[in-house]
Write a structure and sequence with these properties.
349 residues; 53% helix
């Protein structure tokens, strides 16, 4: 830590003063109660002190954010993250959007404590990496939820803020060799900004090892930059679970752009492009999805084929909604959720 930074002394996941205040004011979250169920109005809240985690609070006039006894030192912050991403995320008695809301708030508080104390770059990296994984995973898991349940833009903000801090910490660290965790995070950054020139330059400057996670992300980004959408989709199936979650978020825009290009390249009243083949190229789950997407963008599609004609593509139509993919779901199911969020994804680590 920097010599002039405050050093936290709170050894609990939640400061004692906050535990007492939130119990008194009825602000205990359902995941902090003893039986983890929704509390009925007027019912006495039975808090489980072992499950209480410091909540995020904005700085306000008269509130001392630098008080050492409410700041958790880095070892406690790491223990808190391990609890949130190995225990809280696996809670089955509460709907996962509620779990997401709780974990998001508590991770934000962890990041706040970390920033105030300004620990060394390597410590910041170990704290931020699991946060990035959580928000990347949540973006996919909750992608089909309605806006009143899950706000993808707010999650993207948390993801980008954590990732930006993480990349700054990587650049500030004095470690010359890229760790498996950094390889994963740099690849995640490249995929999150697929085809972006600045992200491409960063990946190229890191000289990724052949066949590593960053190398696949780099190949996908170059293919996206050159509008080679079929190659992007082909490479997507080689990604490990977490990175596949991130890449899947781009699929609606990839499909839209691919259909637009194909509509010009294969424009002909006499050419009928097979629906089944188009589905394989662009990773659709069924022929029905292919037909629905084509119709959404103004293309003429039958049960078996699509007819591309210049001028028929509706450029005003919004991207179709993000949907879950069978191969991504299968990939996620191959690992436990704590492993997905707390591991760097390297089988040898």
């Amino acid at each position: 830590m920097k010599s002039d930074a405050v050093r936290g002394t709170c050894l609990l996941m939640c400061p004692e003063s906050e535990i007492q205040m939130r119990q008194r004011e009825g602000l205990v979250h359902v995941l902090e109660t003893r039986d983890r169920r929704e509390v009925r109005k007027g019912e006495r809240i039975m808090a489980d002190r072992r499950r209480m985690v410091k909540s995020y609070s904005r700085s306000a006039a008269g509130k001392d954010m630098l008080c050492a006894d409410v700041l958790r030192p880095p070892p406690v912050l790491k223990r808190t993250i391990n609890y949130l991403l190995s225990v809280a995320v696996c809670e089955t008695n509460v709907a996962w959007p509620t779990v997401y809301e709780f974990v998001t708030d508590r991770l934000r508080s962890v990041r706040q404590d970390m920033v105030i104390q300004q620990p060394p770059a390597a410590v910041c990296c170990s704290i931020l990496e699991p946060m990035v994984r959580f928000h990347a995973y949540a973006a996919y898991r909750l992608c089909e939820e309605p806006l009143e349940v899950y706000d993808p833009h707010l999650n993207a903000t948390h993801l980008n803020e954590s990732l930006k801090q993480l990349l700054v910490s990587y650049d500030a660290s004095e470690i010359s060799t890229m760790s498996p965790a950094q390889d994963q995070m740099e690849a995640l950054y490249g995929l999150l900004h697929l085809g972006n020139v600045d992200a491409l330059y960063r990946m190229l400057s890191l000289t990724p090892s052949k066949d590593g996670m960053l190398d696949i992300a780099l190949q996908m980004s170059i293919a996206r930059f050159h509008n080679n959408y079929v190659r992007v989709c082909r490479l997507m199936k080689h990604l490990p679970p977490l990175l596949a979650c991130v890449a899947a978020l781009h699929l609606p825009s990839i499909r839209r752009n691919a259909l637009s290009v194909m509509n010009s390249a294969y424009s002909s009243k006499n050419l009928h492009f097979p629906v089944e083949h188009l589905g394989r190229l662009l990773l659709y789950e069924s022929d029905k999805e292919v037909i629905e997407d084509c119709s959404h963008y103004g293309l003429r599609a039958s049960d078996s084929s699509v007819t591309f004609l210049k001028g028929s593509f509706d450029f005003e139509a919004k991207d179709s909604k993000v949907k879950k993919l069978g191969f991504v779901d299968e990939s996620i199911a191959s690992v436990s959720l704590p492993e997905l969020l707390l591991s760097d994804g390297d089988p040898e680590s």
